[in-house]
C-alpha cells in the first residue's frame, strides 16, 4: 500500500510517492492500492487537472482509503470534493483541505 502526492510544483512529503501529472497519478491508482491520496488541482497550462484524477477514481471504483486536497484553487477543491462525496463508498475518508503538517 502506498501514499500518493499529486503536484507538479510542490515538494513531495516524506512517506509519499510523487505524481507530477494526472496521467502518472492514474497509473499509480491503476496498479497500486492507495492509502492516502493528496491532490492538487492545477497541474500546468493545458494539462489534465486533479478533477481528471477524481473522475478516473469514480469511473474505475479504485478509491484511496483517504483523500486530501492541498490545492490553492478553491473552485478546483470544491469540484473535486463534490464529485468524490457524491460517489465514494462510506468508508473513504474525504478531508476538505490539506494534510496537517507534522
Description:
The chain has 102 residues and is an alpha/beta fold. The protein has one domain: Response regulator (Rossmann fold). The two termini are 21 Å apart. The model has no long low-confidence stretch (mean pLDDT 96). It comes from Paenibacillus artemisiicola. This is Cell division protein FtsJ. One of its GO terms (biological process) is cell division. It holds the Pfam family cREC_REC.
Q: What labels describe this entry?
A:
102 residues; alpha/beta; Rossmann fold; 5-stranded parallel β-sheet; 3 helices; globular
Helix-strand layout with pairing:
Elements: E1 2-6, E2 17-19, H1 22-31, E3 34-39, H2 50-60, E4 66-69, H3 74-87, E5 93-94
Parallel strand pairs: 1-2, 1-3, 3-4, 4-5
Helix pairs in contact: 1-2, 2-3
Protein name: Cell division protein FtsJ
Domain Cyclic-phosphate processing Receiver: 2-85
Keywords: Cell cycle, Cell division
Coarse structural class: alpha/beta
How many distinct folded domains?
1
The percentage of residues in β strands lies in 15-25%
Radius of gyration: 12 Å
Query: Spans of 5+ residues with little confidence (pLDDT < 50)?
Result: none
Helix percentage: 25-40%
> Main beta sheet: strand number and arrangement?
5 strands, parallel
- Main-sheet strand order equals 2-1-3-4-5
* Mean model confidence by pLDDT: 96
Pfam family, one: cREC_REC
Keywords: Cell cycle, Cell division
Protein name: Cell division protein FtsJ
InterPro entries: cREC_REC
Amino acid at each position: 500500500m502506498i501514499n500518493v502526492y499529486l503536484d507538479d510544483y510542490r515538494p513531495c512529503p516524506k512517506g509519499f510517492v510523487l505524481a507530477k501529472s494526472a496521467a502518472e497519478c492514474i497509473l499509480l491508482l491503476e496498479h497500486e492500492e492507495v492509502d492516502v491520496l493528496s491532490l492538487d488541482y492545477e497541474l500546468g497550462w493545458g494539462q489534465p487537472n486533479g478533477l481528471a484524477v477524481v473522475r478516473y477514481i469514480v469511473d474505475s471504483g479504485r478509491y484511496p482509503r483517504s483523500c486530501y486536497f492541498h490545492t490553492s484553487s478553491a473552485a478546483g477543491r470544491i469540484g473535486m470534493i463534490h464529485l468524490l462525496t457524491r460517489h465514494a463508498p462510506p468508508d473513504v475518508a474525504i478531508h476538505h483541505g490539506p494534510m496537517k503538517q507534522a
